[in-house]
Amino acid sequence: MVIGYKRPLEEKDLWSLNTEDKSEKVVPQLVRRWDQECNKVKRPIDKTLYSPKRAAKGEKKEGQPIEESEILLAKTLQKTGEPSLFCALCRTFGPYFLVSSLYKIIHDILMFVGPEILRLLIQFVNDSSAPTWHGYFYTTLLLVCTCVQTLILQKYFHVCFVTGMRLRTAIVGAVYRKALVITNAARRTSTVGEIVNLMSVDAQRFMDLITYINMIWSAPLQVILALYFLWQNLGPSVLAGVAVMVLMVPLNAVIAMKTKTYQVAQMKSKDNRIKLMNEVLNGIKVLKLYAWELAFKDKVSAIRESELRVLMKTAYLGAVSTFTWVCAPFLVALSTFAVYVLVDDHNILDAQKAFVSLALFNILRFPLNMLPMVISSMVQASVSMKRLRVFLSHEELDEDNVERPAITACEIVDGAFSWSKHDSPTLKRINVRVPEGAFVAVVGHVGSGKSSLLSALLGEMQKQEGSVSIKGSVAYVPQQAWIQNATLKDNILFGREAKDSWYEKVVEACALLPDLEVLPGGDLTEIGEKGVNLSGGQKQRVSVARAVYCNCAVYLLDDPLSAVDAHVGKHIFEKVIGPQGLLQGRTRVLVTHGLSFLPQADLILVMVDGEITEMGSYTELLGRQGAFAEFLRTYASTEQEEVEESVGGEAGLLVSELLSCPSLCQDVKLSVFWEYMKAIGLPLSIFSIFLFFCHHLSSLGSNYWLSLWTDDPVINNTQPNREMRLGVYGAFGLTQGIAVFWYSVTVSVGGILASRYLHQTMLYNVLRSPMSFFERTPSGNLVNRFAKETDTIDTVIPSIIKMFMGSMFNVLGSCAVILIATPLVAIIIPPLGLLYFFVQRFYVASSRQLKRLESVSRSPVYTHFNETLLGTSVIRAFGEQQRFIRESDGRVDHNQTAYFPSIVANRWLAVRLEFVGNCIVTFAALFAVMARDSLSPGIMGLSISYALQVTTSLNWLVRMSSEVETNIVAVEKVKEYGDTEKEAEWRLEHSTLPAGWPTTGHIEIRNFGLRYREDLELAISDISVNIEGGEKVGIVGRTGAGKSSLTLGLFRIIEAAQGEICIDGVNIAKLGLHELRSRITIIPQDPVLFSGSLRMNLDPFDGYTDEEVWRALELAHLKNFVSGLPDKLNHECSEGGENLSLGQRQLVCLARALLRKTKILVLDEATAAVDLETDNLIQSTIRTQFEDCTVLTIAHRLNTIMDYTRVLVLDKGHMAEFGSPSNLIAKKGIFYKMAKDSGLV
């Protein structure tokens, strides 16, 4: 703590976790118990299979059916009920937790000592004959009791929090382990966002609940004790008060139920919103290129609005329930006193009765307040528990989908496979047998099931019939490389130990040496998440290197050569895959579109529509004149050539730069509160503060009135004018109620207005940010802002502010009353106040820092989890599950290391504070005893009953003020995106653009250059080109020559550093970005689809008719496919478009371009991942449909641009050659060399 006060805490100051709190200790316990629960539930159903009649019949024919029925018996374990997660949790954490219940009981009993002592004190003041030492004795007793109570309560909380912490560790661990083994079908039911939510939100809920769960039995206990003492004090008239309380309970139960339904609705829209945000952030580049930001902004806002409507309803309900609760104690007191006074004239309300009862009613208030909270938090936890249970009981991949000890390297016999149990099989009648050490090539058109075949071999698909077997270890290279957020070297080693000579061989063979020279840190360069700072080809090569390095027996390669340049592809094939490569003698299955590699394969499988139609060696197949020979004949002329483009080196921002957040170590500034008030609206803020004030004034007034009432002289055993006293007392109560209701409404509504405003501005600001911002900021951070921080602003901050204001006024009120009663206290309050203030500052410094460390260490847990979900198939194929589980546990433990001290700090604080409170009580009592002659018992009772409340209020006040500070950080974080750099304006106020611009599509580039960051040199420079309207221009060059950079400049994704580009004579730098981007079209490198209907993916603004959309699909050769879908245009694309094959996604992008039909079309690396057939489709479509348009193509296969009007050759960011293809070949320059490599010359 002391360290924390002197300077901001850092990681190294934290102590390490106790062993029994670590993941490797906690998680296996839970997993073990959960498995027991699941097994209890799965019990074999044997009645149907073992009916004796059937067996007898079977016996007569032959002995077989009996055996069969036994096999069936073993398989049909059916779930008879849901396994109970609750039992599993109880059995894991119950015993330790029970200790806390013991503390709680002792504490509850001590609570009632206070009022009893108060009674004795008042008696002592009234009875002037009592010796003075009685008074001092009572005072000391009061001090001792309160202190013991404090210590016990803190111990109790400590136990609770530790349990909560272990619980969270266990749940996160269990979810992580489960995510590694669920089937693909199950993966599809819950998106990545939802699974991450299980880890973040739901695990957190359990942690919060644990602290309160004991209230379930302790609250009723407190109520019973309180009633017993009240009965002694006031007799039967207590029942009136109890009746009022009992009536309140069902009312609140109804409200709670309502709130719960709203909550579920809100969670649903929140999940949707975050899923959408996730996609927007992942596909942001495409949104920018297409100028679609506004469409998606509206989609997100629509979901957000429905969410806020629900929140609004919840707010009104909340106001009603606050109203009932704040007024309840008052109504109870009123009704009790009224009945007590009116039942019998001789019942006298004296100080002793009134104030002891008030003190007891105050105690009653807490458990009654807590009960509904606990119940609603239990309800929330049960919702979470259900979600967790569903997730943890998803079906898992069968380990026996693939039989390991196989005779040959890998074989499939009569296989039929589907992605989920109930789908029709994607692969049918598969029979393959691969001898050891063979090199097998798999070819076929887009969507013919090549990748699925590899998945089947890996056991990723649901096996419907047949058998699969593989011998030895497996390495797998997926079609879309999966790269971890770690150094390049770690990505290749993938958890194996480093053998330098072998490592260097692998890197060399995979052509990674030149890339290592470009990257800022060589092979120790941090790679951002999803590999943002590597180009497609580099990612793919790293992926291959990883597979080669791990030295396995069987290699499954899913088209790894598609994303790399031709010469690199050749190099990798020769050095790695081919007969002389590093992998010679291993079994290799290569899915490929490259024909040049086929002659060297030992066996070729030709796939059509999920079946293997032909297999044999190259020569055999050619001789057969079947589908394969045709396939070759069509494409033999067009030998494919690929070149790859690297944006990588330049955009390679190191991730370490990102993590050093600016907002780590300052106090929360007042300006943040001011911002928040402005977001609510100043009039509303001031009005709600005024209402708070009214409420507390009237509450003080009513109690003061009560003390005057009790001091009324007693005449003939009755008190005169009690009706008047009662009436005024009631009036005070009424004012109080009205004020409460309204301030509750204003604060909640204000909070919602603020959160709407903040979310809108943040969304707008993030979408307005330039591309470089997204490359720098991990998407996890952004999603966190939209999920966690927004949630805090929505729900947490308003309620915290309410409580903060409430407790602040309470403390001030109490002090005022004590001062009026015993002016001597004025000597004591300032020093105590100072002490209190010091403790609070001291604590907040450390606590805030701990909170920050905790949240900083929380992100890596989710980032890692996200990564794992994306790469499950790779992790499974390599058999690396255990290492990833260890890594995840390590990260969770690291996070809990920061969390644990913050629990301890909380306890530290509470002990100090309660001590301050106890001092106030003691002194109030002491001075009252000293001044017993001049004090009326009424005033004295008032002062001490208020003093007894001070402790809890003080406690709340500090807790709340630090909560307000820690949570208001959310506002700060959300605001901080308002100040980041923005792109140029989207639309200019008065644009002078003619409606159909660009009409001719004439592009003039004058000594143009751009750089990726201020401190880097120009990526391309001094490029001057004049392209007439309707020309077709190819752009070629080696990796990193700046081909993509040029298109980025054309779309102003990166602003020019020098020179300018004019289209039809208009300088594009003078336009609004949307005006520019919506008038030129690009078919980008990686086809990105968003989840939603196919129609939305083609035309998010609904600007075109259905006929136009169908026409575009027809031209993109997708019409047959789409009309074959059950929902046609409304076919739901899954997250990232994963339910379409890569080739189909590419064609959807083509359809987008056809729909927009602008005068300028840019094609970027669009043809790399597509088989030759699709490639031809795309090329011919472009030739026919975009005849009169200017087409710029970044080319990989030179044959596509040989008939273009001109070719621009770039080299190292400069313009090397520019002219028609025939001229350039005659020149014998760079272009000639490239053409020669491709065999075109």
TrEMBL record:
Swiss-Prot/TrEMBL catalytic activity: ATP + H2O + xenobioticSide 1 = ADP + phosphate + xenobioticSide 2; leukotriene C4(in) + ATP + H2O = leukotriene C4(out) + ADP + phosphate + H(+); 17beta-estradiol 17-O-(beta-D-glucuronate)(in) + ATP + H2O = 17beta-estradiol 17-O-(beta-D-glucuronate)(out) + ADP + phosphate + H(+); sphing-4-enine 1-phosphate(in) + ATP + H2O = sphing-4-enine 1-phosphate(out) + ADP + phosphate + H(+)
Alphabetized SUPFAM superfamilies for the sequence: ABC transporter transmembrane region (SSF90123), P-loop containing nucleoside triphosphate hydrolases (SSF52540)
Main location: membrane
Location of the ABC transporter domain: 410-634, 1005-1237
GO terms for MF: ABC-type glutathione S-conjugate transporter activity; ABC-type xenobiotic transporter activity; ATP binding; ATP hydrolysis activity; glutathione transmembrane transporter activity
Keywords assigned: ATP-binding, Cell membrane, Lipid transport, Membrane, Nucleotide-binding, Repeat, Translocase, Transmembrane, Transmembrane helix, Transport
Keyword Repeat applies: yes
Record GO cellular component, one term: basolateral plasma membrane
ABC transmembrane type-1 domain ranges (all copies): 98-380, 686-966
GO BP annotations, alphabetical order: lipid transport
Keyword rRNA processing on entry: no
Membrane-topology descriptor: Multi-pass membrane protein
Transmembrane segments: 209-231, 237-257, 314-343, 355-379, 679-706, 726-754, 811-839, 909-931
Subcellular localization, as worded in the UniProt entry: Cell membrane
E.C. code: 7.6.2.2, 7.6.2.3
A Pfam family per the record: ABC_membrane
Family membership noted in the UniProt record: Belongs to the ABC transporter superfamily. ABCC family. Conjugate transporter (TC 3.A.1.208) subfamily.
PANTHER family assigned: ATP-BINDING CASSETTE SUB-FAMILY C, MULTIDRUG RESISTANCE-ASSOCIATED PROTEIN 1
Descriptive protein name: Multidrug resistance-associated protein 1
Classification of source organism: Eukaryota, Metazoa, Chordata, Craniata, Vertebrata
